[in-house]
């Protein structure tokens, strides 16, 4: 099983995710995610892996499952969105069945904190170039901006590449005016949540790090009081 833990807070875990962990004999995941659930791990075999150890973790999980164990691989947010789901299916190669248990992804959690910015078509783009070539990312940013999508940026400040967010903003500014609303949410649904409503022109004046999701509006997005809202087109 590949289990999505949601953005962090326990009340954002789905009952299905909790049941899957309870049913598992072995729980596999990053230290950071396992640290969120120490009470759920009692009496279980725990395989904690460091960051960037995804392929090894996937292999280990599949070996354990092939040996007859019930294994839960935990992943933050939704495991099928920049998570472990695809890797586990590939590693399993049909040898063991894989069940994916969805979770609340950062885009949903951040959007709920901001108001309703994802009411119409949106694109999610990760600014991490560890696995996606930079040229591909530039092409996708350009296409999303040209298509007037609301753009959600994951991994907005890549390790060692602080300038990606600046480049992304420059591309957005080719198509979107500087007054376009931007929402920045740090640690959404994690107890220490911070949210900022700003604009495309001003967004870089605020702290943006790896624990942040950035939502850039489209031509229908406005700020209504404390909320960022993308109109869906209903007539009043
Ligand atoms: N599978 C995860 C995403 C992993 S990519 C999911 O579905 O949410 C990691 C990126 O997700 C982070 O760099 C950040 O941009 C975003 N993210 C994850 N949790 C977050 C949270 N609680 N608040 C804000 N952003 C978050």
From TrEMBL:
CDD domains in the cross-refs: Precorrin_3B_C17_MT (cd11646)
UniProt EC number: 2.1.1.-
GO BP annotations, alphabetical order: cobalamin biosynthetic process; methylation
UniProt-listed Pfam families: TP_methylase (PF00590)
Record protein name field: Cobalt-precorrin-3B C(17)-methyltransferase
Keyword Methyltransferase listed: yes
Species per Swiss-Prot/TrEMBL record: Desulforamulus hydrothermalis Lam5 = DSM 18033
InterPro entries with a match to the protein in the record: 4pyrrol_Mease, 4pyrrol_Methylase_sf, 4pyrrole_Mease_sub1, 4pyrrole_Mease_sub2, Cbl_synth_CobJ/CibH_dom, Precorrin_MeTrfase
Gene (name only): cbiH
SUPFAM superfamilies named among the record's database cross-references: Tetrapyrrole methylase
UniProt pathway annotation: Cofactor biosynthesis; adenosylcobalamin biosynthesis
Domain Tetrapyrrole methylase: 2-203
One of the record's GO molecular function terms: methyltransferase activity
Keywords, sorted A to Z: Cobalamin biosynthesis, Methyltransferase, S-adenosyl-L-methionine, Transferase
Domain of life, per lineage: Bacteria
Record-linked PANTHER family: COBALT-FACTOR III C(17)-METHYLTRANSFERASE-RELATED
């Amino acid at each position: 099983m590949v289990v999505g833990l949601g953005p962090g807070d326990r009340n954002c875990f789905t009952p299905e995710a909790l049941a899957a962990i309870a049913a598992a004999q072995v729980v596999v995941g990053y230290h950071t995610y396992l640290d969120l659930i120490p009470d759920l791990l009692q009496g279980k075999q725990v395989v904690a892996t460091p960051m960037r150890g995804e392929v090894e973790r996937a292999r280990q999980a599949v070996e354990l499952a092939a040996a007859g164990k019930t294994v839960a691989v935990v992943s933050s947010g939704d495991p099928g969105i920049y998570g472990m789901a695809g890797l586990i299916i590939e590693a399993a190669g049909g040898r063991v069945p894989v069940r994916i248990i969805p979770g609340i992804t950062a885009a949903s959690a951040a959007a709920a904190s901001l108001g309703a910015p994802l009411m119409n078509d949106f694109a999610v783009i990760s600014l991490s170039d560890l696995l996606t070539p930079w040229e591909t990312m530039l092409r996708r940013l350009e296409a999303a901006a040209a298509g007037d999508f609301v753009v959600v940026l994951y991994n907005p400040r890549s390790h060692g590449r602080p300038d990606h967010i600046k480049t992304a903003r420059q591309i957005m500014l080719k198509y979107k005016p500087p007054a376009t609303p931007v929402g920045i949410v740090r640690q959404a649904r994690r107890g220490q949540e911070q949210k900022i409503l700003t604009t495309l022109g001003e967004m870089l004046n605020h702290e943006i790090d790896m624990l942040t999701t950035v939502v850039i509006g489209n031509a229908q997005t406005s700020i209504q009081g404390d909320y960022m809202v993308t109109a869906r087109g209903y007539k009043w």
